[in-house]
Write a structure and sequence with these properties.
By secondary structure, the protein is mainly alpha-helical. The protein has a single domain, classed as Four Helix Bundle (Hemerythrin (Met), subunit A).
Length: 250
């Protein structure tokens, strides 16, 4: 068996408004969870919740009450996705590399199903759904690169985190049931398209802001070492040209 690659978990940064309450709730659930339930079970449950929420969106084109069913499956996703890591930490059975990789690759596929279902629901245009998915993946890529290069894993931006976004999406589902269209300046638009475009702008801005911030930080941290290498290379070249007996003097 190959030796395990040395790994250091990144510092978790989570400042969203619900985080303190959520942590207490998750700790209580972890303490009461049956021993036969392990983190992998919860990861699968969270993924199933995301897939079924996407399916509910797809079915909502024939029955708007499926939007409420989607809310229930978003709650299932929260339960599994939020509790899997909590259980691992509570039972001291963490697998940092495996857990990080599986959790976030599952999230990526889950979002593909969720936003795909929304784009096929009739409540959001497919092109807007594609833009939303692209913006989400762009921000995710930036966050994961920052984990490797900066050593910080941002779980929230300001007061907003994954749980707040689920709550916002659930509220959006209710709004879509009540009024699926909106009139702006005499033009009728899908309410889902309006929300989707706003989300694209926000996610795109966060990705751009975070990438610029991390680029400047890394440039400042590594700029001196780069200059030192240049100076060292110059000194070696000068030494080679002035050293007695060197080939250049023959």
């Amino acid at each position: 068996m190959k030796a395990s690659i040395p790994f250091k978990s990144a510092a978790r940064q989570q400042d969203n408004i619900i985080a303190p309450l959520e942590k207490r709730v998750l700790a209580g659930l972890a303490a009461r969870m049956p021993n036969w339930v392990n983190p992998d079970h919860l990861t699968c449950l969270g993924f199933a919740g995301m897939v079924l929420a996407g399916l509910s969106y797809y079915l909502a084109q024939w029955n708007s009450y499926m939007l409420l069913v989607a809310i229930a499956f978003l709650a299932v996703n929260w339960f599994g996705d939020s509790l899997d890591g909590t259980i691992a930490r509570y039972r001291d059975c963490q697998r940092p590399r495996y857990g990080f990789y599986v959790d976030h690759i599952v999230d990526a596929f889950g979002m593909l199903f969720l936003i795909g279902g929304l784009g096929l629901s009739g409540y959001m245009s497919p092109i807007v759904a594609m833009g939303l998915l692209l913006a989400y993946f762009l921000l995710s890529i930036e966050l994961y690169l920052a984990v490797y290069t900066v050593g910080v894993f941002k779980l929230s931006f300001g007061i907003w985190g994954p749980t707040e976004l689920r709550v916002l999406l659930a509220a959006g589902n209710v709004a879509l049931m009540l009024k699926p269209n909106a009139n702006i300046a005499g033009h009728l638009y899908l309410l889902g398209d309006i929300g989707g475009v706003v989300a694209i702008v926000v996610l795109g801005f966060l990705a751009l802001y975070s990438s610029c911030s991390n680029t400047l930080r890394l440039y400042a941290e590594e700029r001196l070492s780069y200059i030192d290498r240049e100076h060292a290379s110059t000194r070696r070249q000068r030494s080679a040209t002035t050293c007695p007996g060197s080939f250049q003097q023959l």
